[in-house]
């Protein structure tokens, strides 16, 4: 049974893979300067696959420090308006 088109992932080929193609392994070896020119593309050494993990930045703590002073200043007029309405 196949999966419906609407349920498939849009970026199916963009996910992290744990196996590289021969071409990708050669490029990685060239970047690491472990590739000798004229070498056979068969029997390549192992290449570590690095997965990119994007972590969420914790902005709440950084924003609280400058925002506390502004929040106190803004909270005082708001409190006065509520007192006036009563």
Describe this structure in words.
Helices cover 42% and strands 0% of the residues. By secondary structure, it is mostly helical. It is elongated. It is built from two helices and no strands. The termini are far apart. The protein has helices at 22-31, 60-85. The mean pLDDT is 76.
Give a summary of the structure in a few sentences.
The chain is mainly α and 86 residues long. The protein contains two helices and no strands. The model has no long low-confidence stretch (mean pLDDT 76).
> Structural class, judged by helices and strands?
mainly alpha
Percent helix: 40-55%
Per DSSP, the total helix count is 2
Strand content: under 5%
The average pLDDT is: 76
Sheet of most strands? none
Using only C-alpha atoms, the radius of gyration works out to 28 Å
Strand count? 0
Low-confidence stretches: none
Distance between the termini: 67 Å
Shape: elongated
Chain-wise SSE layout:
Blueprint: H1 22-31, H2 60-85
List keywords for this structure.
single chain, 86 residues, mainly alpha, 2 helices, 0% strand
């Amino acid at each position: 049974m196949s999966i419906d088109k609407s349920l498939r992932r849009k970026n199916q080929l963009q996910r992290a893979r744990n196996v590289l193609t021969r071409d990708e392994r050669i490029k990685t070896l060239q970047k690491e300067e472990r590739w000798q020119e004229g070498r056979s593309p068969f029997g390549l050494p192992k290449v570590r696959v690095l997965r990119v993990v994007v972590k969420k930045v914790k902005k709440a703590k950084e924003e609280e420090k400058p925002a506390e002073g502004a929040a106190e200043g803004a909270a005082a007029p708001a409190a006065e308006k509520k007192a006036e309405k009563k």
